[in-house]
Amino acid sequence: MSENSTVEKTIRVLEQSKSPAAQAVLMHALTVNDPQIRDMAARALVRSGSALGKTEVIRHIDVLSPDVVEELSEDEKAMSFPLRQCMEHGDHESSRKALETIESAHLYGEIPFLVKLIATASGERADQCEQVLLALIDKLYEQRSKQKASEPTSINQHCEELLQLFGLELSQFEKLKRPRALIESVLILSDPEDGVARQLIRESSTDCQGMVWDILLESRHDGVLMFLIKSLNIKYVHPRILEIVARRRDIEFQLALVRSIPERLSVNQERNFCQLQGLPWLFPGERLWQSIPDQWQGRVIRLVDALAFRHDQRVGFYESALEHAGVHGKVAAAQHRTMIRPQLFEQFVLEALESEDPAIEGWAVSELRNTELPDKYRFLVNRLDSGCPEVQRQAREALGRFDVPTAILFCETARPSVGPKLAELLLKINPDASQDLARELANPVRTRRLRAAKAAAFMGMEGNVTEALLEMLFDSDSIVRRAVAEILGSVPTPAVVGALETLLEDSSPRVREAAEASLQQILATDEGQAASEAAKAQAKLEMANQPEGDLL
């Protein structure tokens, strides 16, 4: 049999014994150096039902494991009597250990007794009781925050019962020695529309209300901060609440407020926020964006939109975000790009393109399409080779819409020098762009055929779609034939020379003029001379190969 098994068996025997000596041995076991023996002895003493034994467990609470301390809450009623005896009749050390036990084991059932002690005690003893009360309230708040308020759990039940208790105590505010802890507990555990909270804010005495306002202004407990922020979501908010929101400038309140801003504000929130001309900590600048985590910066922009800022003030925030914020702030601010000078917006985008943060660079890539930067497509193409997958994705997404129709539209407004770069870009994004352009040249709508032909010339892609252009020389519309004849002057091939020579007999004088001018342009180059000779040789060959009947 192992040593531990022997000890466990011994402790079980001592637990079942009614002998005072057995109890004394178990109580002594609480002082040994072995933590396992101490824990087993403590569990045995609690199960034994002995008030004296439980008192000893309380006196040695600081040497027991967290697991044993937590188990005390499972037998809270059995621990209540020895705890109260220690606090009411024990010495200073026993009282202190009892308070430590209540706090460590989260014995919420002892809160009413703590409230009673706070009302009668004074000095250090009252301070200790108050500290334990607030520690328990803090733990309750933490546990309740993980649950839905509507769920019928023991935690929610504790909270409801305590709120009623605190409300009853505070109804005699003038008689209380230390009401502040009770008021703060109400604000931590309740919502603005709870009955006890409404009574404190709307119906309590002037002195009581004054303490409520002080706590809402000064406390940095998350529960109090959330009470203040949730008050902005009720229809008829107390004017002092708005005043306090407009005065607080601590970072805890700033982060709590920003964190709570939803994607879409409620009607009540919109009504209440628009009564605020601003907040004392909310100013555009690099410092603001450094103080707010990146994932919440978009909520700052939504907060700015909700407050009663002037137009120029809002623009200042948007510009500040585009310059200094992280990607979430920039995304939110960019939704207001129409309020920002285009040149300034383009400057912010160019600066972000050089960012070492891939997320910010990716944002800049996604915004290039919303600018008039002459080299925006060049920037996008360069990002296709980025080492960052997010930047590549944004570039592909932006360029995915750059097809032949888009290129044709862009050619009509771009500078002539952009043409060859545009062709390079188009072919890199879409290797089948030449075929797509050829199909557009055969479009049944004359206007679209002409626009496609001019775009091909603008981009220097005549050589890529020569066959389609030659087909257009036989178009029934003389305007189309003339335009294509002019374009083909830069394509010195035998087929083009032969086709232009055919047009010298076209029925339209202007087509004949265009054909002659293009032929002269071609023949002015050595390449063109060679193409002309090749065209003549091809014509003679075709004549020689014709049957004699055809010649007649």
Walk me through the structure:
By secondary structure, the protein is mainly alpha-helical. The chain has a domain at 488-545. Helix content is 69%, strand content 0%. The chain contains 35 helices and no strands. It has helices at 3-16, 20-29, 35-48, 51-59, 66-71, 76-89, 92-104, 111-120, 123-145, 154-170, 179-189, 195-203, 206-218, 222-230, 239-247, 251-260, 267-273, 286-291, 297-306, 311-324, 327-334, 342-353, 358-367, 376-383, 389-399, 404-411, 419-429, 433-441, 446-458, 466-472, 478-487, 494-503, 509-523, 526-544, 548-551. α4 crosses α6 (76-89).
Provide a brief overview of the structure.
This protein is an all-alpha fold.
Q: Approximately how much beta-strand content do the residues carry?
A: under 5%
Biggest sheet, in brief? none
Helix content: 55-70%
Structural class: mainly alpha
What would you call the shape?
Answer: elongated
Uncertain stretches: none
Number of strands: 0
Taking all Cα atoms into account, the compactness measure Rg is 42 Å
Question: CA-to-CA gap between the ends?
Answer: 125 Å
* Count of helical stretches: 35
Give the integer mean of the pLDDT values: 88
Strand-helix topology:
Blueprint: H1 3-16, H2 20-29, H3 35-48, H4 51-59, H5 66-71, H6 76-89, H7 92-104, H8 111-120, H9 123-145, H10 154-170, H11 179-189, H12 195-203, H13 206-218, H14 222-230, H15 239-247, H16 251-260, H17 267-273, H18 286-291, H19 297-306, H20 311-324, H21 327-334, H22 342-353, H23 358-367, H24 376-383, H25 389-399, H26 404-411, H27 419-429, H28 433-441, H29 446-458, H30 466-472, H31 478-487, H32 494-503, H33 509-523, H34 526-544, H35 548-551
